[in-house]
Amino acid sequence: MDRSSLEELLTPITTSSDPTSYSVRVAVLPDGDRPQAGDWHDAEWVTIDGTPHARLLVGPGGAVQLNAGAHRAWVEITAPPEKPVVVSGPFQVT
Fold first, then answer.
1. CA angle at 79 for the pair 72 and 28, rounded to the nearest 5°
2. Taking a C-beta distance cutoff of 8 angstroms, is the pair 59, 65 a contact?
3. What is Dmax (Cα atoms) for the chain?
4. What pLDDT, on a 0 to 100 scale, did the predictor assign at position 53?
């Protein structure tokens, strides 16, 4: 992903049940950082080929402006009484 690009960041979620009825938030941080309270952004669900993905608009004018380097997406799903957090693999921003 180029740091000057405005695009949807899609993070696939693998689960035994459909999470799309629950609220979802995403934090996108440099690899090695953990999210703090202010890093979370409300996201949406989109299902692609049967797999739910958390969707967040990133880049200039989006929820998060990314700098060059390795990043990870953190996905928080509010599914009372649970609130699982899923971490993506690293991806590169150039």
1. 15
2. yes
3. 39
4. 98
23/73 Cα distance (integer angstroms): 16
0.90 exceeded by pTM: yes
Q: Which of 19, 37, 29 is nearest to 79 (CA)?
A: 19
Tell me the one-letter amino acid at 73. Answer: A
Nearest to 12 by CA among 44, 47, 39, 58: 47
The tokens describing 14, both together, are: 């693998």
Supply the DSSP symbol for 90.
P
The average pLDDT across 44-57 equals 97
Rounded to an integer, what distance in angstroms lies between the CA atom of residue 54 and that of residue 31? Answer: 19
Q: What token pair was written down for 82?
A: 């649970």
What mean pLDDT do residues 2-22 have? 94
